[in-house]
Specification:
The complex is a heterodimer of chains A (314) and B (300). Chain A is mostly helical. In chain A, a hairpin with a 4-residue loop joins strand 1 and strand 2. Chain B has a single domain, classed as MetI-like (MetI-like fold). Chain B contains twelve helices and no strands. The N terminus of chain B is likely disordered. The chains are: A mainly alpha (314), B mainly alpha (300).
């Protein structure tokens, strides 16, 4: 088990290093002067010269990569040459809003998807199970950005029940929650399907275990058996799935932020792509990858900690 | 398409024969189930409308009709027009061609590479297998769209870039599938016997491994189409995919999004084919899997 954890941590490090390498190569393999390409046509010669000096573009390429790598690993992702602000700070300011959106989206999906999966597994092939199956496939198949656009059209533009754009007044929690409803709905919808299916599948397996049959034989209430004993084990593969699927969750959040004009990392990346400001895009992509890798690793550690069979072998 | 379970390849010949007799029954099972039938119908509709778009479209997708701009559905323009008076229905039909192009080219290229890398990993030396597996894990772990955006930031939007993103991110799934089957087969008695008879490696891969993996690969491909079509539509929606004035479902949605307060029709008309296509291929893929290869159900 210790070996497994070591492997997982090693993989996370490799992923982050690959992201660093990919972004570095991307910039240097395109023919032309990297500083001019990175900053786009708007950049002044002074800005280009400053960026070239900062990236040590006159040094050999291996040394450049070394400097870039050490700077990035020590948290220095450079300076946005247009606003003179630290890229790390710009991205970290945008990050909480994105994480809240992703977390709330996942939370409401779990509150609906997990019970749906449990009930389906208790009565397999009932009308409820079949209906859940259809709902799951439908929510998984509909692209999340389309859910964003259509819910914006229906609930904000036509019915005017919910606000169209923004994240609400700073400091006013009720207003912020009000602005979070539609984006969180759009981000979470496909997860209702994923979670219901995953929980159903692992629940069906667990319900056949002897300890569950023993619990039934002791005369415990079926509800207690399902939610207190079976779910504890059946939820584990689902947690792993959430870790792996978090990248998809971030992509949905990116679209939701752009469509609902919410501040966040997704909106930041999009705006900077449109402005041809590669240094900020690069920093934002790296930090997003880092967050993703951490959450992925975190999910695996949570599973290892929750599962007594795994925990004892540590 | 073979249905031989890889655990029991000795019965390959037997299964190949029975499969022929069972073909009709399998097809009936596929179409007899409402999911499979809906899937087949929706996929046929998508293919037909995309292939015959130039014949079916009532107007040129880029023809302007300024006096009729921003009209809702009328007898002349059954899905309405956009801000330049272009016929939305014709644009939707032509947008299907972009989706079909990206899906066909993207998935076939990545199937070929998946086959290659999967066989390499499955039949090659241990270190190569480990390296390739690590590479697959890394690619699978990346938030695709976000890395794609970084590339677009430097290279500018283009359809080829979308294709490249799609290909790189879908290869690992095929490669893993091929790798697993190759490994299961490489040490079975009939393969060892063939090798001792002097059959070349490429002969074994071509004649015995390929028929075993090609079926599951097509099932995986059917399930990948929604992902690929969504990536194309999503990036085109952001203005980072096809270039104007080319019609794609994503670019129609983008134009509609900018006009959301004036007219709902482009958003409705651009979204419906996208949903029908993703639903159709998902239904078809799952029905194919249930009928031909229930083993696949676990991993996905």
């Amino acid at each position: 088990m210790f070996h497994y954890l070591l492997k997982r941590i090693g993989l996370s490090v490799v992923i982050v290093l690959c992201a660093l390498l990919a972004l570095f190569l991307l910039l240097h393999l395109i023919p032309g002067d990297p500083a001019t390409i990175a900053l786009g046509p708007r950049a002044t010669p002074e800005a280009i010269a400053r960026y070239a000096a900062k990236m040590h573009l006159d040094e050999p390429i291996l040394l450049q990569f070394q400097i870039y790598l050490f700077n990035a690993l020590s948290g220095d992702l450079g300076v946005d040459v247009f606003s003179e602000r630290s890229v790390t700070r710009i991205v970290l300011e945008a990050l909480p809003s994105t994480l809240i959106l992703a977390a709330v989206g996942l939370l409401w999906a779990a509150l609906i998807g997990v019970p749906l999966g449990c009930i389906s597994a208790v009565r397999p092939n009932s009308w409820f199970d079949r209906l859940t199956g259809v709902i799951s496939v439908a929510t998984i198949a509909i692209p999340s950005f389309l859910v964003s656009i259509w819910s914006l059209l229906v609930f904000a533009v036509i019915l005017k029940w919910l606000p169209v754009i923004g994240a609400g007044e700073p400091g006013d929690l009720a207003d912020q929650a009000y602005h979070l409803v539609l984006p969180a709905f759009a981000v979470g919808l496909s997860w209702v399907g994923y979670l219901a299916r995953m929980v159903r599948a692992s629940m069906l397996e667990v319900m056949n275990e002897t300890y569950i049959r023993a619990a039934h034989a002791f005369g415990l209430e079926p509800r207690t058996v399902v939610f207190r004993y079976a779910l504890k084990v059946a939820i584990l593969p689902t947690i792993t799935l959430i870790g792996i699927g978090f990248g998809g969750l971030l992509s949905s959040a990116l679209f939701a932020e752009i469509i609902f004009t919410r501040p966040g990392v997704g909106k930041l990346i999009y705006d900077m792509v449109m402005n041809r400001n590669f240094p900020v895009v690069q920093g934002a992509v790296l930090i997003t990858t880092g967050v993703y890798v951490l959450i992925n690793l975190g999910a695996d550690l949570v599973v290892a900690w929750l599962d007594p069979r795994v925990r004892d072998s540590l | 398409m073979s249905v031989t379970p890889s655990e029991n390849p000795a019965s390959a010949a037997l299964a190949a024969n029975t499969f022929r007799g069972e073909g009709g029954r399998k097809l009936r099972r596929l179409l007899g189930n409402w999911q499979g039938l809906t899937g087949v119908v929706l996929v046929m509709m998508f293919l037909a409308s995309a292939i015959f778009a130039p014949l079916l479209a009532p107007y040129d997708p880029n023809a302007l009709d300024i006096p009729a701009r921003l009209s809702g559905p009328t007898w002349q323009h059954i899905a309405g027009t956009d801000q330049l008076g272009r016929d939305t229905f014709s644009r939707v039909l032509h947008g299907g061609r972009v989706a079909l192009y990206v899906a066909t080219i993207g998935i076939s290229v990545s199937m070929v590479f998946g086959l290659l890398f999967g066989m390499l990993a499955g039949y090659g030396p241990r270190w190569l297998d480990n390296t390739l597996l690590l590479l697959f894990d890394v690619i699978r772990s990346f938030p695709t769209i976000i890395i794609g955006l970084a590339a677009v930031a430097l290279l500018g939007p283009s359809l080829n870039l979308i294709l490249a993103i799609v290909i790189v991110t879908t290869i690992p799934a095929y490669a893993r599938l091929v790798r697993t089957s190759t490994m299961a087969l490489r040490n079975t008695e009939f393969i060892i016997a063939e090798r001792s008879l002097g059959v070349t490696l490429s002969g074994i891969l071509w004649r015995h491994i390929l028929p075993n993996v090609i079926g599951p690969m097509f099932i995986l491909a059917a399930m990948d189409v929604p992902v690929v079509v969504t990536v194309e539509a999503g990036l085109s929606f952001l203005g980072l995919g096809v270039l104007p004035p080319t019609a794609s479902w994503g670019s129609i949605l983008n134009e509609g999004y900018l006009l959301i307060r004036q007219t709902p029709w482009p958003i409705v008309a651009g979204g419906i084919p996208l949903v029908l296509t993703t639903l159709g291929f998902t239904f078809l893929g799952e029905a194919l899997r249930d009928v031909f290869d229930p083993r696949l159900a676990k991993g996905h």
